[in-house]
From TrEMBL:
Transmembrane segments: none
Principal EC category: isomerase
SUPFAM superfamilies assigned: NagB/RpiA/CoA transferase-like
Matching InterPro entries: IF-2B-related (IPR000649), IF-M1Pi (IPR005251), IF_2B-like_C (IPR042529), Initiation_fac_2B_a/b/d (IPR011559), M1Pi_N (IPR027363), NagB/RpiA_transferase-like (IPR037171)
Organism of this sequence: Marivita hallyeonensis
Function as written in the Swiss-Prot or TrEMBL entry: Catalyzes the interconversion of methylthioribose-1-phosphate (MTR-1-P) into methylthioribulose-1-phosphate (MTRu-1-P). Also catalyzes the interconversion of 5-deoxyribose 1-phosphate and 5-deoxyribulose 1-phosphate. Part of a bifunctional DHAP-shunt salvage pathway for SAM by-products.
Entries under PANTHER family matching the protein: METHYLTHIORIBOSE-1-PHOSPHATE ISOMERASE
UniProt name for this protein: Methylthioribose-1-phosphate isomerase
Taxonomic lineage: Bacteria, Pseudomonadati, Pseudomonadota, Alphaproteobacteria, Rhodobacterales
Site (described: Transition state stabilizer): 164
GO biological process: L-methionine salvage from methylthioadenosine
Functional pathway: Amino-acid biosynthesis; L-methionine biosynthesis via salvage pathway; L-methionine from S-methyl-5-thio-alpha-D-ribose 1-phosphate: step 1/6
Amino acid sequence: MKIDGTHYRSLWWNAEKDVLEIIDQRWLPHDFRVVPVATMQDFADAIYQMRVRGAPLIGATAAYGMALAMAENSSDANMDAAWTFLEKTRPTAINLRWALDRCRAALRPLPESDRAAAALQLAHEIADEDVEINRRIGEHGLALIRDIAAKKPAGEPVRLLTHCNAGWLATVDWGTATSPMYQAHDAGIALHVWVDETRPRNQGALTSWELGKHGVPHTYITDNAGGHLMQHGMVDMVITGTDRTTRRGDVCNKIGTYLKALAAHDNGVPFYVALPSPTIDWTVSGGVAEIPIEERDAQEITHIQGVTEAGEIGTVRVTPEGTPGGNPAFDVTPNRLVTGLITERGVCAASEEGLAALFPDFAQAAE
């Protein structure tokens, strides 16, 4: 996507410097910073500290981390050590383990002398594949938005609501939930996007930053406003992303997604999830019981980052001193609350049968 007319991916390989570079998202939307990821500790910190975030982007970053590990020491022992070191950084987003497993499976049969070059090429391929997957998700989501637009009075926008940031910053490019929005906007369909703030890290500000740079009309709202808007007929469709989806269509996404799904169900608002296939965990059936939920640092709850009147980025405490904070980072939306899953292969029901029909190759391999 573009920032002030210049195209960016959320990460890229700097061939001249022989290093991965990323947009350090901790400082957005207030400051745009590009930083290198040069050591294995840098890779772990980038993922855990959310310098990169979003399941697809975490997976791509991990693939480049494996490439660095092979450049440093291409032995089986170091490959396994790098897998373990990176896998423990974020337990919920399945793309992390998917990318690490894919790298190890591809590299293990190769001679050690060939592994470094092959690992870097595979990381490039994983990044490029993510871009294409998300573009195709956008095409299928665009068809849904067109259907809604065709039923609207002339000049009235399609009103979408999204939670967290499932934009190009959460992927290598395009985004998942935002890809249909960008494609609809570019096709001339009138849109208005309600953007949840998404406490505690306020990732909705990233979505607002993205949409603003692309010229998509939007409004930033509190997390608790969505149900009110739905009650008053001000939301035509909800689209979110996902960090892990079970084989039966339960969806694990940023904390608060479940509440939006409940409100949508109660008000008859379609609730769709944009879903790249690497985010499907074919080994898990019941999301609430089986998906591990990451518990993050309480300081994300008790403190908040922003810009002062003097233009300086700073952090302030918003709770009484000594108050403990609980910070589960994700929740699970049962498939019964999901209208449909928007994937790179089309839209399907949030069910084991629906996913298996679109992805018979993956479903059969998991049996």
